[in-house]
Amino acid sequence: MHPEWQKISNDFIKATSYAIGDLEEGWAAKYDFANRPPTYLRYEEALVRIPLGKPDFSASPPLWELLQQRRSRRNFLKTPMTLNELNVLLWATQGITADMGDYQIRTVSSAGALYPIETFMLINNVEGLASGLYHLDVEQWCLEGLKLEDVTEIAYRFTENQEMTRRSAVNFVWTAVVERTRSKYKERAYRYIWWDVGHVAQNLHIAANALGLGVCTIGHWFDKEMNEYLGIDGTEHLSVLMASVGKVEGKDWLHDRRPS
């Protein structure tokens, strides 16, 4: 590792570390949910809004079998995903499961139930959907079409030519609205954001494997270009993780593992 990069990493850990006595007693419990930043993001100017409704949950293998068989698979077929399959994946990663009054609980845990993670999708091949850039409106549970265009080469270029991104049915791009978490957890917020998106990604892996789909998380992309394409500033709202999903043969993990 370059010495300067190591210093930046060490400085971050040091600046966001606590010792006993550093914090005011009970500070986290005093957080005012009523005056928190907006939990939900909506694009009123979206080109299309597609209601998703309640997903149809098909039978799946037992949880322990899913965990035993979980693998990253990315040798995607040209077969499209169904809209219901996409809906199931979205519900598994962002679905609201309970209303607590001041806040709502989802299928994934989040530090302080603040849910900073937003879901964007570069859609290549989903039945009933035009190709393009979409955003999930969690509160109204619908897809917002932001750019209706061929995004195959955009995903490929922004991930430095990772072949799975042009072959996948959907490329998820998760972003973080930093102030949602920072308003409560201050400098510690960035640690919690990575934690939150990790929960989201793991749920995607489990749900996709339950549906017999291939999924692979992506940690390498060009942040500047991706943030610009999504229309976010890269500081207060930034891309934090990606994943590709699509149909695979599903007979042999080693065959499904790499694009052939």
TrEMBL record:
This is SagB/ThcOx family dehydrogenase. Gene3D superfamilies: NADH Oxidase (3.40.109.10). Pfam families: Nitroreductase (PF00881). One of its GO terms (molecular function) is oxidoreductase activity. It comes from Brevibacillus panacihumi. Residues 68-246 form the Nitroreductase domain. CDD domains: McbC_SagB-like_oxidoreductase.
